[in-house]
Amino acid sequence: MIETAAKRHPGVPPTCASGISPSGNVHLGNLRELMTPHLVADEVRRGGAECRHILSWDDYDRFRRVPPGLGLPESFAEFIGRPLTSVPDPAGDGCHENWAEHFKEPLRDALSRLGVRLTEISQTQMYTSGAYLDQILLAMRRRAEIGAILRRYQTKRTEVDDEERAPEYFPFRPYCATCGRDDAIVTAFDDATADVTYTCKCGATHGPVPIAAVAGKLVWKVDWPMRWAYERVTFEPAGVDHSSPGSSFTVGEHLVNEIFGGDMPLHFQYSFVGRSGQSKMSSSAGAAPTPSDALEIFEAPLLRWLYARRRPEQSITLAFGDEVGRVYDEWDALTRKVSAGTAEAASVAIYTRASSVAEGKLAQTAKPLPFRTLASVFDITAGDEAQELRILRDLTPSEPVASLDEVRPRLDCARNWVLEYVPSAERTHVRSAPDAAVLSSLRAEEREALKLLAERMAESWSLDGLTTLLYGIPKLVRGLPLDAPPTPELKTAQRTWFILLYRLLIGKETGPRLPTLLLALGQDRVRSLIAA
């Protein structure tokens, strides 16, 4: 890429580009539009070369519809057709200048936490400042050629169709000076004077007036290749919907070369990002999770890894349910292999891209205890920090956790996951009194098992010790040693034994890992609940 940039634009560093429309929540599918060029730009920077990553905010796009799920009044529909930067902040509290800024801000914070360094470009600012005036004039004067290129690849309704009844095709859409909407259509343009005339569905007619004085923008399929040439873009990926034959990239290649005198960026397509049970994330779905949502439960390096470990053409499925613990386990296993020097070279490279950027390493949890353990500890203690610290110290006898800060931000991620994604019915509620009905119906073998637990619990009071004891009690009851090999009969007995303990301690047949649960409750409380 460096060689391509040097050949095309001598003396100009390579430029990777992303484009996002802040029409609603910027979701995790959009994040791939940012992470893909970021990883390329960051790799160039790691090699010691300069590389620019730009984010073009398409905030001069029209407001298409009122998104569901925001609880906005019907009156917001009056802004449909106006630029996103001319629509009020949906929060209604004046905390942001406009609709677009409301949705930009959370992404800025998330990108900072993810180590994504880029330069933002507002298309509202570029168009209204006159930065693109020369490009607009060029496109309008070569409108016939542009129209012919667009029609060549027209397989369904496109921008060209909107003006089929007009005597000419014009690649510029004004925002009406009367109503402020983009329901206006250019009816005439004077190549010599650059005066434009347009009519609007609101009934207004304007012109001839200098096009420099008219609010508006080039239509999308012309706007994009114009920006490739203007920004000297070296690399820009796109989703499969923009990369298929006859799509925006196909048309754009002709326009950037033949009209705007630029070069087609290096390009590959990336596949969609989905959520469990949802094939593709979409802002129009109304509830697509955002990068900020993900960073509430995934540490930043881990979230980067979920994108970096997949090839662009591979789809990504993100889960927010029980699979989160498994994802953390996979990340921790990779971390251990990298630290031990046993990971494959490809895995080390991916881990490096996830855990650091060219400027240095990203912050990680100092003592990364298993995510599921931290979630269980928070669930059992209901967030009592003194109890959390006590349990975590018991869980780490060789190197005791001295402060909860040592297990942050992972502890906070586990808390957020329990509070936001674990149904209330599945939360852990410790019994306040012994279950007399269960205790009175115990068989002799079960009474013996509970007696053994009460007697041996103190000497086994550690995560490993309790694990060995709990799995071993069904063996001891049968006169077998603790290290007796498992058999199908023993495995069945162990499952039955665990169900009994869960029923006595939390009134359910499943729950957090029993060793963690016992450490959380403490020996006295456990004895009080299992005393037959």
Describe this structure in words.
By secondary structure, this protein is mainly α. Among the domains are: 2-132 and 221-272, HUPs (Rossmann fold, 3-Layer(aba) Sandwich), CATH 3.40.50; 366-427, no CATH class; 436-530, Arc Repressor Mutant, subunit A (Orthogonal Bundle), CATH 1.10.10.350. The chain is 45% helix and 10% strand. The protein is built from 22 helices and 14 strands. It has a three-stranded parallel sheet with strand order 1-2-3. A hairpin with a 4-residue loop joins strand 6 (195-200) and strand 7. The radius of gyration is 31 Å and the shape is elongated. The N and C termini lie far apart (73 Å). 38% of the residues are buried.
Describe the SSE topology.
Blueprint (H helix, E strand, L loop, with lengths): L1 H7 L6 E6 L7 H19 L5 E6 L41 H16 L4 E4 H6 L4 H9 L1 H10 L19 E3 L9 E6 L5 E6 L4 E6 L5 E3 L1 H12 L6 E2 H4 L4 H11 L10 E2 L2 E3 L15 H5 L4 H9 L7 E3 L4 H18 L4 H11 E2 L2 E2 L9 H11 L3 H11 L14 H12 L14 H5 L3 H13 L6 H15 L10 H19 L7 H8 L1 H8 L2
Parallel strand pairs: 1-2, 2-3, 9-10, 11-12
Antiparallel strand pairs: 4-8, 5-6, 6-7, 13-14
In short:
This protein has helices spanning 2-8, 28-46, 99-114, 123-128, 133-141, 143-152, 220-231, 240-243, 248-258, 291-295, 300-308, 323-340, 345-355, 371-381, 385-395, 410-421, 436-440, 444-456, 463-477, 488-506, 514-521, 523-530; strands at residues 15-20, 52-57, 119-122, 172-174, 184-189, 195-200, 205-210, 216-218, 238-239, 269-270, 273-275, 316-318, 356-357, 360-361. The chain is mainly alpha-helical and 532 residues long.
